[in-house]
Amino acid sequence: MTDRTTASVADLERRFGDPWDPGNPTGHAAVLAADEAGEMLTAGERLLDDYGLNAEFVPPDLGGRLTRLDHLIEVLRVVFRHDPCLGLGYGASSLIPAVNVWTAGDERQRRRMADVLLAGGRAVSGYHELAHGNDFARAEFSALPGDDGRLRLNGRKEVIANAERAEAMVLFARTSAAPGSRSHSQLYVEKADLPAGAPVHLPRFHSAGMRGVQLGGLEFRDCPVPADAVLGAPGLGVETALRSFQITRTALPAMTAGILETGLEVTARFAEERVLYGRSLAQMPYIRSILADAFTDLLICDCLATVTARAVHLLPGETSLYASAAKYFVATLLMDAMDALSRVLGAQFYLRDGGYGIFQKHLRDLAPAGFGHAARVACLSTVLPQLPRLARKGWLDDTQPPTGVFQIDADLPPLPFGRLSVGSGGRDALSASLSAALGSPELDGELRRLVLVIAAEQADVRRECAALTPADLSVAARPEALRLAARYAAVLAATACVNVWLHNQERHDAFLGDPHWAVAALGRIAERVGRDPGQRSRHLTERLASEVLARHRDRRGFGLSNRRLP
Amino acid sequence: MNTPESAPPDTELRSWLRARVAHYAQLDAAAIDTTVTLTTYGLDSVYALILCGDIEDHLGLALEPTVAWDHPTIDALARYLEETLAQASPSGESR
């Protein structure tokens, strides 16, 4: 983290205050009460207004603070840690449409979106139609020219956070009847510019988690909008989405890791407080191993997410691969880890009140990580068709990524919205860095052995990808084919972990510099892809469990940044 | 071969494209009409991106990955590629 990130994160943490203080208007008790009422936490929204969170979503040339994706993630992660409803309803829901405007909008559209956000307004994106799910090229919502030259909006968009409260929207619409991928456009529309009565707001959708977030829908009937509402040229809607979503597919699951941080904190607290059979849970080896594993999974998520976020800056031509792989893998690990932690809490994870009630809320709020924005299987379907070409060619190329992609504190160039591409062009420098790590003299012992296990998996994935048939590259792919994309993501995560360990030795963080966590991480990943990680030393589990409990006692975060909490 | 009147005769590039499309559509090359859009054969946006990669590797060109979205028939694609090849010089645009 840069000094500026550290300062903003500390400032935001101070504003949220101690979550365990029952009198804190933005603490766990207040967050739970808002959830029970199905409302946004008003005090939290005010806090984020005062902090000026929206400026984090706006590029600096338009007056905002969106200079680095890793910075954005760290800030939003604080919000998710305290209240995921604020993270989604105040954060991600405005970020997604905004990024599409930064990627494809003209100067006027960019200025207007920036003005709405910097004034504390909300933006929403209307991509989703319930009948078509992630198959958004089948979207029926249309924006076709009327007799007066203006476009006419027709159709409905559903399950949209803040639909009713937003000042600005980005709508994905069919603008041509022709088949193919140039028949849709995105439109930037402000509600103030629409005729009275438009759009019609659909009744609120009620959800199992994120209950405070107001999910609504928009319906338009022959609603006129100016022809220049289109973002970029007409027909670029699919391409703009596929490019912009690389930023949001990277950022959203990474922010959501804040939920697992709270999960770990609640579980560590419970384990220390609860006494069974005359000893605290925290002393029981079974409980300690669950804590150690969940902590390891969080570090894996952080490594993959951080490297992917840095790759967006440094390797924008390749992030179509990395962002979708990361979205799939990070979301999966977060959900599995929270599920495992829930077993430590026993009945306490099921109760909606009492001292640990915040856990069940965070667990429910995490579920959208699996399907929201892009379903995990849709992410695998983005990765899979790129793999055969990589197996034939790209993975034989030893071109290495810039080392800055792994160095947590290194500077980054501005976000290259214009250089994101819908395909990786057959390049995958991150994957090449696994074999490069093997050549590193620092890599020895247990970690080296595990990198070899992962390298064997990488070789198998390459061999099997080279043998994929055309039918396996489409949505009709066999489960085994999709599993190849998942295995690719797992290898990428392991590659990120070992290289983060190798390239941050100067960081004065004794924990990060020690190979133990990387050994644990690679072991977990090897197990996940069905490889034998070998016997894991009890010492390793002990060490990680002790670190979890120590960080809990010292009030430090559980993520890679290991930062002090107020 | 029963080629529609509007289609130019098969060049090497055109027959190669026809064979690639046939491969992805899992049809006989003779069944592929070079004047209709790739979507006619069920080849959606994803296959268009894959095909672009094949073309880059085959011709040693760097192309926009969306080239087959903008030139959605074999004929249109072949025309575009022939023009691009004609313009490409050894010092021309490359990655």
Please explain how this structure is put together.
Chain A is α+β, with helices and mostly antiparallel strands and 566 residues long. Helices cover 52% and strands 10% of the residues of chain A. Chain A has helices at residues 3-16, 28-37, 42-51, 69-82, 84-104, 107-118, 237-273, 285-314, 319-345, 358-366, 368-371, 376-383, 387-392, 429-438, 445-466, 479-503, 510-513, 516-528, 538-554; strands at 123-126, 142-145, 151-161, 168-174, 184-190, 200-205, 215-225, 275-276, 279-280. In chain A, the strands form three sheets. Chain A has a four-stranded antiparallel sheet with strand order 2-3-7-6. Chain A has a three-stranded mixed sheet with strand order 1-4-5. A two-stranded antiparallel ribbon of chain A has the order 8-9. Chain A starts with a helix and ends in a 12-residue tail after the last helix. The mean pLDDT of chain A is 94. Chain B has 95 residues and is mainly α. In chain B, 49% of the residues lie in helices and 0% in strands. Chain B contains four helices and no strands. In chain B, helix 1 packs antiparallel against helix 2 (45-59). The longest helix of chain B has 15 residues, at 45-59. Chain B is globular and about 30 Å long. Classes of the chains: A alpha+beta (566), B mainly alpha (95). The A-B interface holds A 137, 179-182, 238-239, 381, 385-386, 388-389, 392-393, 421-423, 425-426, 470-471, 473-474 and B 23-26, 37-39, 44-50, 52-54, 56-57, 62, 65-66, 69-70, 72, 95.
Order of strands across the widest beta sheet of chain A?
A: 2-3-7-6
Question: What proportion of the residues of chain A form beta strands (DSSP E)?
Answer: 5-15%
Approximate helicity band of chain A: 40-55%
Find the structural class of chain B using helix and strand composition.
Answer: mainly alpha
Largest sheet of chain B: none
pLDDT under 50 segments of chain B (min length 5)? 1-5, 91-95
Radius of gyration of chain B: 13 Å
Q: Give average pLDDT of chain B, whole number.
A: 86
Total beta-strand segments of chain B: 0
Number of helices of chain B: 4
Query: How many strand units of chain A?
Result: 9
The helix/strand order of chain A is HHHHHHEEEEEEEHEEHHHHHHHHHHHH
Rg of chain A over CA atoms, rounded to whole Å, is 23 Å
- Distance from N terminus to C terminus of chain B (CA atoms, Å) equals 38 Å
Indicate the mean pLDDT of chain A: 94
Main β-sheet description of chain A: 4 strands, antiparallel
Helical fraction of chain B equals: 40-55%
Oligomeric category = heterodimer
Instruction: State the separation between the terminal residues of chain A, measured CA to CA.
Output: 17 Å
- What is the element string of chain B, with H for helices and E for strands? HHHH
